[in-house]
Every structure is written in C-alpha cells, then in structure tokens.
Amino acid sequence: MSVLLAQKHAAPKRLVPHWLIHLGLLGVFAVAILDASPIPLPLPGSTDLLILVLAAHRGNPWLLAIAGIAGSLIGAYTTWEAAKKGGMAMVQRYVPERFLKRIEPWVKRNGMLSVMVACVLPPPIPLLPFLLCAGALGVERRPFLTAVAIARTARYGLVAWLGAVYGRRVIRLWSGYAAGWSDVILWSFIGLVIAAILFGLWKYKHDKRRLGSAEPVGAAG
Quick one: pLDDT at residue 139? Predict the structure, then answer.
C-alpha cells in the first residue's frame, strides 16, 4: 500500500525532469532569446510553456516572467538590428511571400502597434515576420523595444500567474495520461531545439554572406 501511495505522489514529478526544473531562470532567459530571434524553435510558445511549468513547480512566478521579458527583449533587438542592416532582402529570405504581402502594409501603417500585437498574442500568430519588418521598414529602436516590453510583460505576467495558481492541476492531469511518454517527448523536443539552433545559425551566416557578396554588385550597377 505504501509503495502504491509513493508511486501516486511521484507520478506528477515524472512529467518534468529535475534537471529542467533546475535550469530555472537561466533556462527561461535562454529560450526567450531564441523565441524572438531568427533561430527557429520547433514548438511555438516554448517560453510560455517553460514559465508555466516552472511556476507550477514552485518557482517564483514574477522572477520567471522577468527572465522571459529580458530574454525576449534581447532576442527581438537582435532580430530588429539584423533586419535594419539587411533590409527587405533579408525579410524576404525568412518570410514567405504570402505572409509578407499581408504583414508589410500593416507594419508600415501601424509600426509600434503592430509589434505590440504580435508580441502579446500567442501562437499561431507569427512573431518573426513582424520583428523583421519593423527593422527593415524603419520602426525606431525606442518605440520598438517599448512595444516588446509592454506586450511581453502582459503576456508572461499572465502565464506566470496561471502557472502559479493552476499549473499544478494541469500537470497532475497531464501526468495521468502521458507521464509514461514524458521523457520521450522532452528528449525529442531537446533534439529538435538543438537541430533548429544549428540550422538557424547556418542559415543566418549563409544569408549574411550572400547579402554581403551582393552589395558590391548593386553598388556597381
């Protein structure tokens, strides 16, 4: 009987391994940077999920939100700066034409507001096209960072609060259905993240070289 009780109480913990919990603020900070950078993550909303899980495991929800906001600001600024230097040529390499036709006019008209909406809304609203267009179309740095900060504060603050209040119930429910597959899911996700980072770095360097080599040709014409 005591063995069964011990297994029952241990089941929710198997959903998230201890090493992931120990990453804490550093893990949220790093994932938030990638989430707002040109390096793609395999799961949209990864920062929200990590904040939710860690807040549910008694992490300080407000420090977790701050880590997510700070990381998102760094990642978004990196994306904005790259697009500012690369121009629309860089945007076209990362954003499919069917999305760009809709997003570009809206960013031109609304600027800071378009960035704020994209940063506050969860998936499937794509973030990267808005950040890139903001840089390429001349949205100034201060309004851009202000929009990101306001939107991410609202979004990650809400996620952290939900994790602290309701997160343990969600994890308990999930563990009853998928705890046996949790390690497989997590390690698969980690493998996808590593592959996405390597691919993103390669693509970024490749595109940077192509843009650099194209500049003298344009100047000569």
Answer: 93
